[in-house]
Input
Amino acid sequence: MTTGSAQPSQTPLCVCVVGLGGGGFHWEAQKIIQAVRRPLELVLVYGGPNGGIMYWHSEDAIRAKYVVRGPSLTGDGALRKSVLTAGNIVQALRILYREKPDVVLAVGTAQAVPFAIAARLANYPLWFAESVTRVQAPSRTGCLIARLRLASKLFYYSPELAPHYPDGVCIERGAT
Output
């Protein structure tokens, strides 16, 4: 299937979409995916208990679906968070090596960090989108990804975040 005005003869771009499971992150990821003018194959990575809300609406082909546990769920101590994060990095590496995406799209959630580290280790480009709800201050996830320079492209929605993301691209809310 094609996206937008894409040419059917183009090779599909494989995008691993991380940070799904409910709420606005689905909307944000779908808005970014809809802007790609090329055929896509998607690898969807859901988070949260039992994958959260495992819903995705797209005309693009879905190659695979995975469920990962968020590394920083409420009630986890520092040691448990560290172990879960390390486990998520290993799981992310397995997914990336199995699926071999052209790009990893991570949207504002805690699952973005392990996938960002795994993408860097496996030499896959990462596009990170800060949450649309972040208007005046970036998220801890966004700050960490920016500070460690894990994203090849970093997107944010509010112009007020420009000082926090000097190498990022502002996509004002009305434009998407």
